[in-house]
């Protein structure tokens, strides 16, 4: 089971920053997870919420601000270019989540694919694009079917959607998997790999190992390795 750092080693560092991903490397993560949004001038940046309020104290929407304005409000913000270059330099796989719904619609998938192809050495690491949007996953298939995709599931996602998705992986949340462990077997029976988020507690980490999870996404990579007794 691979351990991917959720927004970096975000239990110990500001999420989605270079410090968080450097921390993830130090903590032995096999790869990185990130969230991506487009600025007004179509620069893909690592950011989770629609606004900058929670992390930067700025109520502005990422989609309505230029990259320069976003950087001024939060100097630590990473572009997708910077993130991918760092991942390649450290030989770490990446899970890139495109956020929806957004003002730019499905333009984000087009830009993400452009950036993936433009990154030197990207073929040396594992790259996957994830989304809770079924339409986003299907658009990825149309744009570039060679890029691995993960269809993310939350509590209200229908099994029918997951089953019909073209994604190579399914990503349920740990809460749903804990309540209904049979989901893991159902996903495996579809011939899909299993990526689970966000797993920090000891019992949940051990459950994922027992259920044959392929990628465990955690805020605490070093703790997960300790629980699993990885060297």
Overall form: globular
- Reading off the top of the CATH hierarchy, the class is best stated as Alpha Beta
Mean pLDDT: 97
SSE order, as H and E?
A: EHEEEHEHHEHEHEHEHHEHEH
The CATH topology assignment is TIM Barrel
TL;DR of this structure?
The chain has 231 residues and is an alpha/beta fold.
Give the key terms.
single chain; 231 residues; alpha/beta; TIM Barrel; eight-stranded parallel beta barrel; two-stranded antiparallel ribbon; PLC-like_Pdiesterase_TIM-brl; Glycerophosphoryl diester phosphodiesterase; GP_PDE_dom; phosphoric diester hydrolase activity
Q: Would you mind describing this structure in some detail?
A:
The protein is an alpha/beta fold. It has eleven helices and eleven strands. Strand 10, helix 10 and strand 11 (215-218) form a beta-alpha-beta unit. Helix 10 (202-211) crosses helix 11 (221-228). The chain starts with a strand and ends with a helix.
């Amino acid at each position: 089971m691979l351990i991917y750092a959720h927004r970096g080693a975000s239990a110990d560092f500001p999420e989605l920053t270079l410090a968080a991903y450097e921390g993830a490397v130090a903590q032995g993560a096999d790869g990185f997870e990130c969230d991506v949004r487009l600025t007004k001038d179509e620069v893909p940046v690592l950011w989770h919420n629609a606004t900058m309020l929670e992390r930067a104290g700025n109520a502005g929407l990422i989609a309505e601000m230029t990259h320069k304005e976003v950087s001024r409000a939060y100097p630590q913000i990473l572009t997708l270019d910077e993130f991918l270059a760092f991942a390649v330099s450290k030989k770490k796989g990446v899970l890139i989540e495109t956020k929806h719904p957004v003002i730019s619609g499905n333009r984000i998938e087009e830009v993400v694919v452009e950036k993936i192809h433009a990154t030197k050495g990207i073929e040396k690491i594992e790259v996957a694009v994830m989304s809770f949007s079924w339409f986003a996953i299907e658009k990825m298939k149309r744009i570039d079917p060679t890029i691995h995709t993960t269809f993310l599931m939350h509590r209200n996602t229908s099994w029918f959607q997951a089953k019909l998705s073209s994604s190579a992986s399914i990503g349920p949340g740990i809460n749903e998997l804990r309540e209904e462990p049979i989901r893991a077997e159902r996903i495996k029976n579809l011939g899909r790999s299993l990526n689970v988020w966000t797993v920090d507690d000891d019992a949940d980490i051990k459950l994922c190992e027992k259920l044959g999870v392929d990628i465990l996404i955690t805020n605490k990579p070093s703790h997960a390795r300790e629980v699993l007794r990885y060297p």
